[in-house]
Design brief:
homodimer; about 375 residues; alpha+beta; Creatine Amidinohydrolase, Chain A, domain 1; Creatine Amidinohydrolase; 2 domains; six-stranded mixed beta sheet; 9 helices; elongated
């Protein structure tokens, strides 16, 4: 396991050396998901230093529960350094260590560190030149290896199971909140570490909203009911969204709206080809909604990458730079919400694959047929 | 309601004017809890600008669910400005607005803004001088008004009810995770917006840990079982922690350890007097644990403030500067964890009150007597 992490850290070092600004550059990673990606664990408040001397050090706060949740096993490749006091900042200690081990330049994550922490680093190591690491680790995390995709498959399977069980239960009369709690309980029952993000259950005039916090509103006959949930497994997070009709038969407006969103989502899924521009995926879905008169409804983007974070690169949005690669998992999640009436949202997690390999691998396999429950 | 928020913003302006570095100073608040405190709402990614021209503006991202969760009602005292695109940064837009309305200086929350966002502000408004607002809003939030304390009382009542119900149910054989989910469901059943923080349930050798993520470990006869939970109500968060013994009678070591932690927690509670140094509260509890040989066990601090955030000022720690004031709600939460055996943690939320008013007001009233369940 630690070989994987060592290889990732080596790759990061190589990239930074290639971009080095001169002097001996050390790298300070402070964002939790990035630390987890590079070491296999993410103790609270930790900082990872890739030293100019070739040594990697994980600096952490003292942890009374020194156990499996805590530090990685000691290894030659990764040294663990526990701060003496619980009020220190491991990032500041890392900067001090970098300065003391011969670094002239320290690359930091300016999109993560606050101004206050950055000032503290600068003041404890005044001769260290602080530069921006930028999204180097996020970039590395884009393409997932086999183990990462395996974890995502399991997360998706757990998610499908939890959703499937809910659909077999009585829904009318239950509140959005209770259904959301029920879904989260089932995720855990089926082996998830926990939910990948706060579960969204939206019924009636709430349905189709992109990010709806469940309320005490009760499910009623005739409602659209849209749910969005995901499991977290081995740190990896996936996402599914489905919309159902409550009762025996949907109304015409519901069928028509559902078909439009389904077509938009299918267009997005079919655009997932290695080499395609990220913005083209968004455009493919947006065009379908536009043609039906719902162009405004889409929101910022059609989808995003998933992995250790539920929202990561790439962003599938109109302004996105970059292209898709194989082995990049993304969501495709268009929707239309009609204020006062409700709406539809359909959301899958897929892995981009070459057409020769069968096209995108769908992880979330719950049916997208409009079900009347 | 908006009068309260207007008054808070006025008070913040006055404090900043008193500390003004020259030129006309505007204030940019970006931290969500602080925005909520000053406006009554906290849309995702919002930024609040107290302009040098005397106008207050809340800048937000576009929100498809324009509804009760969204913006404050339009009022003369607070202007709402929605960014055109969903990928913008309201803080950057706020800096631009400040520069365009005559500000020479902009005070920002350096402990919240990332370096990257700070650079973006500076580049969009190069003639604006950026200074640090520091913890001015956190400082203002320290002393709670009657409505805030009322919300905390309700949060505590909900928390006590949820915990009380759990104690009447069967515990042996259930996993930490299921008990945690059960507690969170009951919090919501009793009217909470949601949990104040992730619920901790720790049994057997996990018990007594300060921040334990629930696992699949099952409760067994003879275990110490320690739980920590809290409700969020009207945005306000409280916290309770209790430790129980599972079975008919506790072992001697369990009774002895419980008595030590109880005495330490009582010493901490009794130190909550207006004018007392924050570090003295920590010392009072720490001394009791020290005398019993558990001085190392306490961890960073004996407790902390609560309010819109579960961990806010004041910190009751050995290095804490500052003194207690009346109407400041805090936790007192010592514990001892013996690796491999388990331990005890006892945790209350109290409001500091003058002795003439009866001393600290205990919000979390579930018994602290050692119960065998």
């Amino acid at each position: 396991m630690s070989e994987v992490h060592l290889a990732r850290r080596s790759r990061l070092r190589d990239r930074c050396a290639a971009n080095a600004v001169g002097g001996s550059t050390a790298v300070l990673v402070s964002s939790p998901a990035n630390i987890r990606y590079l070491t296999g664990c993410a103790p609270r408040g930790a900082a990872l230093l890739l030293g100019a001397d070739g040594r990697d050090t994980l600096l952490t706060l003292p942890d009374p529960a020194a156990g499996p949740q805590g530090l990685p096993e000691p290894a030659d490749e990764l040294r663990a350094l526990i701060l003496p006091g619980a009020d220190g900042d491991p990032a500041v200690a890392a900067a001090e260590l970098a300065a003391n081990t011969g670094s002239g330049v320290l690359a930091v994550e300016e999109h993560h560190l606050t101004v206050a922490r950055h000032r503290a680093l600068a003041s404890v190591a005044p001769r260290l030149r602080l530069v921006d690491l930028g999204g180097a680790v996020e970039q590395q995390r884009l393409i997932k290896d086999d183990e990462e995709i395996a974890a995502l498959r399991i997360a998706a399977e757990i998610t499908d199971q939890a959703l499937g069980e809910l659909l077999e239960s009585i829904l009318v009369g239950r509140t959005e909140r209770h259904l959301a709690l029920e879904l989260e309980r089932r995720l855990i029952d089926h082996g998830a570490d926990g939910p990948a993000f706060p579960t969204s259950v939206a019924t009636g005039r709430h349905s189709g909203l992109p990010a709806h916090t469940p309320t005490d509103r009760r499910v009623e006959e005739g409602d659209f009911l849209s749910v969005r949930l995901g499991a977290r497994y081995g740190g990896y997070r996936c996402q599914i969204g489905r919309t159902f009709v409550i009762g025996t038969a949907p109304a015409d407006w519901q069928v028509n709206l559902y078909n439009v969103v389904f077509a938009a989502q299918r267009a997005g899924r079919e655009a997932l080809v290695p080499g395609t521009e990220c913005r083209a995926v968004d455009r493919a879905a947006r065009q379908v909604l536009d043609a039906a008169g719902y162009g405004e409804a889409l929101g910022a983007r059609i989808g995003h990458g998933v992995g250790l974070e539920i929202g990561e690169d790439p962003r599938l949005s109109p302004a996105a730079m970059g292209k898709l690669d194989a082995c990049v998992p993304v969501t495709v999640e268009p929707g239309v919400h009609l204020p006062g009436r409700g709406g539809v949202r359909i959301d899958d997690t897929l892995v981009v694959r070459p057409p020769a390999d069968g096209g995108p691998e769908l992880l979330t396999i719950t049916t997208k047929e409009l079900l009347a429950l």
